[in-house]
Amino acid sequence: MVRIKQAVQMDHSPYLVPTGQPVDLRAWTTDDDGGLDKRAAKDRTDDLNDRIEALQELLFAEGRHKVLVIIQATDTGGKDGTIRHVFDKVNPQGVKVASFKKPTEEELGHDYLWRVHRHAPKSGEITIFNRSHYEDVLVVRVHDLVPPEQWERRYEHINAFERLLTDEGTTIVKLFLHISKDEQRERLQDRLDEADKNWKFDSGDLRERAHWDQYQEAFRVMLERTSTVHAPWYVIPADRKWFRNLLVSEIIAATLEQLDMAFPPAEEGIRDLVIE
Amino acid sequence: MVRIKQAVQMDHSPYLVPTGQPVDLRAWTTDDDGGLDKRAAKDRTDDLNDRIEALQELLFAEGRHKVLVIIQATDTGGKDGTIRHVFDKVNPQGVKVASFKKPTEEELGHDYLWRVHRHAPKSGEITIFNRSHYEDVLVVRVHDLVPPEQWERRYEHINAFERLLTDEGTTIVKLFLHISKDEQRERLQDRLDEADKNWKFDSGDLRERAHWDQYQEAFRVMLERTSTVHAPWYVIPADRKWFRNLLVSEIIAATLEQLDMAFPPAEEGIRDLVIE
Predict the structure, then answer these.
(1) Which of A120, A150, A167 sits opposite B114 (nearest CB)?
(2) Which of the residues A23, A60, B11, B40 could staple to A94 if both were Cys, CB 3.0 to 4.6 A apart?
(3) Considering only alpha carbons, which residue of chain B is nearest residue A149?
(4) What is the pLDDT of residues A58-86, one digit of tens each?
């Protein structure tokens, strides 16, 4: 049996949101550097991504576990960049990204978990949700898209849904990319000033920025009510992109290693075979 | 506004499984006739099916409600016949039947509610589940297809899933077609004896009949643990097909009438238009 040795070094517990306790989002730093410098962090991330690649191949070969990574962030928080930098080496056959944008008419005709559930990973797969069902207690809440008594019930639905997935063999990791309001201003300004970032600028982002405090409150309640033992949230300090990438790579690698996987046993007699 | 008047006559409460109370399936009759004779019942069913047709058209036009009808039964209990006789007049554009057979490899790779959730009705639709997620606490339980600690958790998942659907605008009706062991023997014998029923006979049915008591126990626990206020079970006495059809038509018609629907208002000024 081939096993891959432990390789994670960092203690992630400071970034884990404890279950059932009040959350004060202002107490969570956005500009942590883990005491590392950028060059060392980048090298380390690169090594970790090799390990993620190897572990993902094992997960696919074994075909037993399902892994779901849910990423939420403030606008410009770096969801796309995180996915690009952490999963840059994996085999796309076993890793899927599901991006949830404004729901279609067909999607709105169903309950809000309908479009999400169909993209849940199957055995041997890693699925990354770029935004997710949490939008239904974030943008929906901030913009009053449904009455409060309706979104209020959703925290319980979501916990039950994630409980179903984990009870039936899915490992769930939830990542909230946390940036400061100043950092968002700089990133939006860059999108205006730098020609190769202009395509990213959307004037809607400015309208959303005006709701900063309401979004922070919606994120706070999300973390407080849906960080469960079976599907915990991590708050990722994301002002420094290189630290964000390192920490997410650490958490993903550690999660895969904890699955304690092994390649399926070789077919009997295979060692005596010679291909002619 | 066009409204359709009340037309349901029977009291369905004796067939409703109360929430949170012990269930003794032997106390539920299989050969009720409601004090009616067959001819009168068939005429009445025919009238009700006209009403179901009209109400379904209204549901589709209004596009506001979703309706899910879940049908479970002992083998030969009459699921197919019920669907054929109750929904024979509706417009298939707004009424879908989802039949859940032995899961495919793709379906087994996901949690057991994955294949079911994707067929949940959308606004304006009626969906009928011919078998359902309840198989995952019936055949799966009787044949030990997963360990007890795994199916044990599923009653809670199922209640939470159905709660999600109802909270988000779906009306759920669950029908258990209840026949006696003698009636099953006669129906299986007919499938052997009558040339035009031979195609229905499957020797697997005899193997399942040998598990009669285990299935009755699994049905009993299902009714006891998943008849909720938001998604109640009805036990339909199904030895007499004509009574089964009448009672199901009554319940479906009553359920649709309780939605208190109305056709959408006409576009303003439409009454003055003359088509030239």
Answers:
(1) A120
(2) A60
(3) B167
(4) 999 999 999 999 999 999 999 999 999 99
